[in-house]
Amino acid sequence: MTNSVPSLLVREHAILLNLGSLRAIAMRDRVLIFDYNRRGGRAFVDTLMPRLNPRSMNGGPSMPFELEAVESALISRIQRLEQRLMDIEPRVQALLEVLPNRLTADILEELRISKQRLVELGSRAGALRQMLLDLLEDPHEIRRICIMGRNCTLRRGDDDLECTLPSDKLIAEEEEEEIEMLLENYLQRCESCHGQAERLLGSAKEMEDSIAVNLSSRRLEVSRFELLLQVGTFCVAVGALIAGIFGMNLRSYLEEQASAFWLTTGGIIIGAAVAFFLMYSYLSRRKIF
């Protein structure tokens, strides 16, 4: 069994369970757990042990041990997914309230981590949901679970039950209905968890798009301001060039007149301002500003 895709495989005398970090073999009178010290194994044991206590049965009929093990595995797995969703949801809601008005590196990093966890949670819930759907759509596998440990077989062609004792057939049919109801119940819980994770993920993606638009708008404003500074710098540089020309030691006869300095200075300033506004008007007509 791989550790990536959830699976429930029915064999003649055992049920192989692979639910994330829980890998186990459930039989009529025992269950073997691989890596029982992992989180999934401990959660499975904590769920299974109270169900085996006769005091917790309230006098009602008990399911076969292997079905108790299967249900405990599903309960522990879905409860862990639901707990992760309950931990992530408030954080995502808080981020959606402060964004996009408050853009800081810490908040953006927290949004990225929350989105990554939602993707992982949605993927795991979706894989478990698909496993339950496949099992519900395959009545042959469900009937194989029901006849485990009994003198019953499945007739080829129509999968009808054939049992040595009529009571075994009646019990197997009742267990089949019970298993289907059990799987449908956990399928609904799994779909609810998967749907909520997908909704939160969709909201996070929409917020990312809004943040991207906001950042693009800010970058555009900065680019416009930089272009405005470059235009102003160019006009001032032209004025400085003219001033440098007059600053050479070549005689131009303007230095003999007292008003020439002020006229030249005023002309440079006015010319630079006129050139700036002309270039600004041109860029505005081109819709660059």
UniProtKB/TrEMBL annotation:
Signal peptide: none annotated. The keyword Magnesium applies. CDD domains: Mrs2_Mfm1p-like (cd12823). Keywords: Ion transport, Magnesium, Membrane, Transit peptide, Transmembrane, Transmembrane helix, Transport. The chain crosses the membrane at residues 227-248, 260-283. Pfam families: MRS2-like. InterPro entries: MRS2-like. GO terms for cellular component: membrane. It is found in: Membrane. It comes from the Eukaryota. It is a multi-pass membrane protein. The keyword Ribonucleoprotein does not apply. One of its GO terms (molecular function) is magnesium ion transmembrane transporter activity. Its main location: membrane. PANTHER family: MAGNESIUM TRANSPORTER MRS2 HOMOLOG, MITOCHONDRIAL, RNA SPLICING PROTEIN MRS2, MITOCHONDRIAL. Magnesium transporter that may mediate the influx of magnesium. Belongs to the CorA metal ion transporter (MIT) (TC 1.A.35.5) family. This is Magnesium transporter.
